[in-house]
Specification:
Strand order of the largest sheet: 1-2
Structural class: alpha+beta
Number of helices: 3
Distance between the termini: 33 Å
Radius of gyration: 20 Å
Oligomer: single chain
Shape: elongated
């Protein structure tokens, strides 16, 4: 899977004795940011994300699948994965 990162230049702005960043409203809406965000330090830099538990919503999942343009041709063949006989006593 190839992932294309997008860059958005933003400026640090003074907030009292600190600095902050302004996030364009288009991105706030796109990512569903609410009042609290999580700032993570990673090896590649800082990651800013919404406060959810890290799981994608169904809408986010479908959007990501559509963007990746993955082939789901073999989905039905693996859907039941040997459980088609209804024999689930082994679990």
């Amino acid at each position: 899977m190839e992932h294309h990162a997008r860059s958005h230049p933003i400026k640090l702005v003074p907030i009292g004795n600190s600095k902050g960043v302004r996030i364009p409203s288009k991105l706030i809406k796109k990512y569903g940011f609410l009042s609290t965000l999580v700032l993570e330090e990673t090896e590649k830099g800082l990651l800013l994300r919404g406060e959810r538990d890290g799981k994608l919503s169904w809408e986010d999942t479908f959007q990501t699948m559509a963007e990746e343009k993955e082939s789901w041709d073999d989905f039905e063949a693996t859907l039941l994965d040997g459980l088609e006989n209804g024999d689930d006593d082994n679990f």
